[in-house]
Amino acid sequence: MTLQDARTPENGNGASGSSEPQIGWHKGYVSGSRPDLRVPVRRVHLTNGKDVTLYDTSGPYTDPHIDTDVRRGLAPLRENWIIARGDTEEYAGRPMRPEDDGLKHTSPRGGLKNLDAVFPGRPRQPRRGRDGAAVTQLAYAQRGEITAEMEYVAVRENVTPEFVRDEIAAGRAVLPSNINHPEIEPMIIGKNFLVKVNANIGNSAVTSSIEEEVEKMTWATRWGADTVMDLSTGRNIHTTREWVLRNSPVPIGTVPLYQALEKVDGKAEELTWEIYKDTVIEQAEQGVDYMTVHAGVLLRYVPLTARRKTGIVSRGGSIMAAWCLAHHKESFLYTHFEELCEILAAYDVTYSLGDGLRPGSIADANDEAQFAELRTLGELNTIAKRHGVQTMIEGPGHVPMHKIKENIDLQQEICEEAPFYTLGPLTTDIAPAYDHITSGIGAAMIAWWGTAMLCYVTPKEHLGLPDRDDVKTGVITYKIAAHAADLAKGHPGAQEWDDALSDARFEFRWEDQFNLALDPDTARAFHDQTLPAEPAKTAHFCSMCGPKFCSMKISQDIRREHGGDLAVDAEAGMAEKSAEFAAAGNRVYLPIAD
Amino acid sequence: MTLQDARTPENGNGASGSSEPQIGWHKGYVSGSRPDLRVPVRRVHLTNGKDVTLYDTSGPYTDPHIDTDVRRGLAPLRENWIIARGDTEEYAGRPMRPEDDGLKHTSPRGGLKNLDAVFPGRPRQPRRGRDGAAVTQLAYAQRGEITAEMEYVAVRENVTPEFVRDEIAAGRAVLPSNINHPEIEPMIIGKNFLVKVNANIGNSAVTSSIEEEVEKMTWATRWGADTVMDLSTGRNIHTTREWVLRNSPVPIGTVPLYQALEKVDGKAEELTWEIYKDTVIEQAEQGVDYMTVHAGVLLRYVPLTARRKTGIVSRGGSIMAAWCLAHHKESFLYTHFEELCEILAAYDVTYSLGDGLRPGSIADANDEAQFAELRTLGELNTIAKRHGVQTMIEGPGHVPMHKIKENIDLQQEICEEAPFYTLGPLTTDIAPAYDHITSGIGAAMIAWWGTAMLCYVTPKEHLGLPDRDDVKTGVITYKIAAHAADLAKGHPGAQEWDDALSDARFEFRWEDQFNLALDPDTARAFHDQTLPAEPAKTAHFCSMCGPKFCSMKISQDIRREHGGDLAVDAEAGMAEKSAEFAAAGNRVYLPIAD
After folding, report:
1. pLDDT tens-digit profile of B364-404?
2. Which helix (H) or strand (E) holds A240?
3. CATH number attached to the domain at B135-489
4. What's B350's DSSP letter?
5. Binding positions for [4Fe-4S] cluster (chains A, B) (predicted)?
6. Which of A42, B100, B232, B340 has the fewest CB atoms below 10 angstroms from its CB?
7. Is B569 in Cβ contact with A311 (below 8 Å)?
8. What's the pTM?
């Protein structure tokens, strides 16, 4: 297996590779109170001499001064912080087993690999809380401590460390940061911070490879993914995750149930607490930062889905429903929930309490099955918090616009303002191939009303596995939704970005418009399709209207002719101004040679 | 000039040409009370034997039994209805002049063409209301008459003709239908009907041709555009419009000011009422169904834009503002408004009162300039209604989510519920190249709250002229927004479409999913990218999760095993069911050969 290809990827719908600096963006760092606390930012140097500083998720890959190598992994930024706290210990860890990579049945295709060589980089031993202590950001916050991670996100979000601590302590925000994933650049998820975006990657039994998944992770964070979920379900599931974790600057989420099901050959009824627990520990030792747990699917809720149009559409939800029915009892996720809390607390794995009964169609939105599960998630959230485990709550799904607000309002009430983490929601079912858009609409709205993180949906949703271009389109669409919500929430500083771009637009600074865009490559390419010549980049009009009809040009001329007086005195002296305007030639546009 | 290319267009991002039937869609007709009233519908024949009937905007082009020819134009469906009313007369009409096509300066490139041969199809004379009578759908409705056009849209919208008449009479809906555009299939715009979508086309001084514009119109209506605006500003403006009108099954809108400005060589201050009026008559005789008129830009409002971030961004608005300042008086559009009403009434041209001072950036949303103009539009709406002229009101623009509702609420109040027709609004400025999405979000929301028609935005907005693919992407995005709004408004029948697609999804009827999609070609292509083989079209899973993790498959199995009992009795007998499930082999998925 070689991952060298990830260094020289084929270009997607952009012009740049995923491990090179982005043209027009400059990596900068903002320092905290200690020398090893350097928060990355994206700087855009404008042609008017000003700088715009933006949030940066792309990791060391876009820093020309850092030589990254996916075979070596990223530097463990947080390692010293974790060790310095003195409440964790290294230990031998659970041995890697063939079935962790789905190789139970020495198949002709697979064959046992050298398990020591799962990842060629720096050797490491897993770490856990000493004597089962909760080594979570929540536990620290509850004790009033401000960690380096909290200070890091405070710098990143332009708030005080105390505010970060208080939000985490109240359970209103999570800072997913497994002590076995020291490579991450800490980030925070909560309604009083910038809205975050998650991108899903993952191979499946049907297609794709480890190389592709690592590359998709890097590519997704380049365009703004704040976290990445590895939803792999095929072979090499353990090894793929190891490579992704060692190379990821953002928190990684998983659904441990998927791997556990692989270990019992896909037979849901053969799942046991022991197999599940073993899988959770395996993944926690690797460094998974948050795990989706469908512990709210209770036996008595399953019949509530029987008359639905699309039944149960969550993979985890349907697996647990099948288990509950087969055994006619509550799932091991629910009955062992407190034990699971203790495990997660020892690694600082964050719960993402899964909505196994979310609606999968407009017809099924906001039904009894969905809200019954939500109430159970509320109870589990309280238990998790008591154990010091950070918790967020997953939400739907498919919901028409007029039923969206009820979702966030109920969740916030029932779950004591725990961060809501929603998939879309899709606002209509009639547009397969455009579900990034059907869901981007719902995502923007629900984020405005308080959702803390949005799980992206790509154009391939319901149809196939997303490729590189789909990942980018999904991320950009969701960054739009997240930022539109930041604006609508009046998040401090959010509008500065829009203002900088609008100024550039009004002043015909084309290069600044491109570089300030969420996707400079495509903006530039679109402009060049119609007016490719370099002089067009400084032209005071564009191909849309041409010079005669350029409203911005005319506006500028009006402003130049009439100056600030326009605003100072709306009526007085206008006749005089009118005469001046005529004297100046009544020019409202620059003639072009035609 | 040849337009034969339009018959065999290159494929865009879909698999079908714009003048051929769409694979998976079947043209049907629903009859009214008279034999010449046949309303087209799109029928999808499902593989389960059922039919789904959808609204169809694509015109005769997608009817395999009609042989269309862009050189001949479409059949004048409404001609007999118009003649039968007996209130109109044919007349010689205004002679075509060279400057109508921008050929004033016998340029080396242009040269005078044979003006009689502007369009090679059926010769026609313009028609107008006898003795200046108002021959508008509004005038008929106000008199209590139900026209053939009203019955047509009643069939189309599945409401009673009386309801249509009442909505038009109240000014809450418009039925744009110039008596000189008998080719259209009547449609209605109002908040109590399906939300409509407009697509802009038009050449500019910089690029594009007549052929391309006619082709874009056909292409846009194929994907669902309910009206098309021809915003041409370059040469051949008259001829382009003639070709578009004679071939368009949907109402055509224009901004006459653009052509008037061409006639005075782009010098705004040289515009006069006489030149403008002549242009309006020229276009009304050709058959333009609605015209954007920026009559609300008053002299005293211009200074209110001086401190804006992006000044005036409406082309028409900036031209009129320059005119007002140059002459230091109110514009001829405002001072001659009643005379303009009389002209429009004689052809049944609908007003689209333009928002010349709409915000062009997030920073400028909902400011005094914008709302001052809106109040003037409210006054003009009342005057227009008095003259029997159908009227809709244009809206912004760039508005963050939390400021959107104020726009529609104010407009509805000030303009006596006249149809609102908005451009987006864009909910953030940071994503050039994705403004179909930034605006699709705002469009869905404002339509939910009452906007009657949405003007699309393409990915090229702010960057260049849309090509064929951009037009399709813009239309599909806006059909999503419109339908999401129909759902949220609880429009009768809207959810049936989603339900049909969700049923197909749950039952793994892949071909039905594709054919029910807004864009079958892309949905099918995306599916085939991952699982190209024909058997995958009947597989009970897809490439996303593979068979083991297919929640719908598991859901189906649960339902099959546990039957309707699940819903009947949530608790009792579950243990028994559990035993049955185990006896049946506990199968939750079909094993695949692996």
Report:
1. 999 999 999 999 999 999 999 999 999 999 999 999 999 99
2. helix A237-247
3. 3.20.20.540
4. E
5. 542, 545, 550
6. A42
7. no
8. 0.92
